[in-house]
Amino acid sequence: MILPYEFAGPLQRVAGELAPLGARVIWHQETQSTNADATALAESGAAEGCVVIADKQTAGRGRMGRSWSSPAGAGIYASVVFRPEPDVARMLTIAAGVAIAEAIEAAAGISPALKWPNDVYLGGRKVAGILAEAGFAAGESWVVVGFGINVLPAAFPHDLSARATSLESELGRSVDRGELLAACLVRLAARYRELQDGGRAGVAAAWRDRAAATFGRPVEWDDAGAPNSGVVRNIDDEGALIVDTPSGVARVLSGELRWV
């Protein structure tokens, strides 16, 4: 389908800042999941930087198999195909969190906070999420980074209503979805180029600045089925969460983290 001018116009204006993203942009009025669509493209050999956008998702996904509420016209639902080197791939989720927070600040004038590994918050409630999925096909590895941003006030499912918010709910005014999407892709491209140039420390520092409120908080998680707990200290320059535990310092790379 043809990309609506709501998005096409802003993307055209920032075309010179998008490399290596945006050479191919695919628009769906409705789809099950932009991450699933981008994964299929990656597996079939799609070039790095291919972007999939939808106005509505019927089976939007978050981490750990959770659903992501994606009503028509109410948010940004997009996924990008990357083909990074392994050291860059490890930091993509962290870099994407920084980029989405920076884009929201640039386009909406409000400064979000970050929570490890992939949540973007305003006023203590989640406004955006990021899902990175990796694979290998046709002799090449790939990473798909999807992001969802709640833009308009929407009827969230009951179990989310106390934990989720939207940009317009927080601001009390409208937000241009096209300008926000363009800002997201510009910042995502910039942070990706930074990683490719060896700038992992700079990306990690930018993430820490927006996540400082979570340092010192207690957390619980499972490691190979065994429960663990501790207090968050920081992240390292590879994006791992550093946690002080009764038995020493733990480095958490993935899994379900519970903030106590």
Features:
260 residues; SH3 type barrels; 5-stranded antiparallel β-sheet; 12 strands; 30% helix
Describe this structure in words.
The protein has 260 residues and is an alpha+beta fold. The protein has helices spanning 5-13, 34-43, 86-89, 92-108, 167-171, 177-196, 200-211; strands at 25-28, 51-54, 75-82, 113-115, 119-122, 125-137, 140-150, 218-223, 226-235, 241-245, 248-252, 257-259. A 7-stranded mixed sheet has the order 1-2-3-7-6-5-4, sandwiched between helices. A 5-stranded antiparallel sheet has the order 11-10-9-8-12, with no helix packed on it. The protein is globular.
Brief characterization of the structure:
Helix content is 30%, strand content 29%.
Our measurement of the CA-to-CA distance between the termini, rounded to an integer number of angstroms, reads 45 Å
Number of strands: 12
Find the CATH topology of the largest domain.
Answer: BirA Bifunctional Protein, domain 2
Helix and strand pattern: HEHEEHHEEEEHHHEEEEE
Q: Biggest β-sheet, characterized?
A: 7 strands, mixed
CATH architecture of the largest domain: 2-Layer Sandwich
Query: What percentage of the residues does DSSP assign to strands (E)?
Result: 25-35%
| CATH class categorisation of the largest domain | Alpha Beta
Instruction: Provide the CATH superfamily of the largest domain.
Output: Bira Bifunctional Protein, Domain 2
Number of helices: 7
Average pLDDT taken over every residue: 92
Coarse structural class? alpha+beta
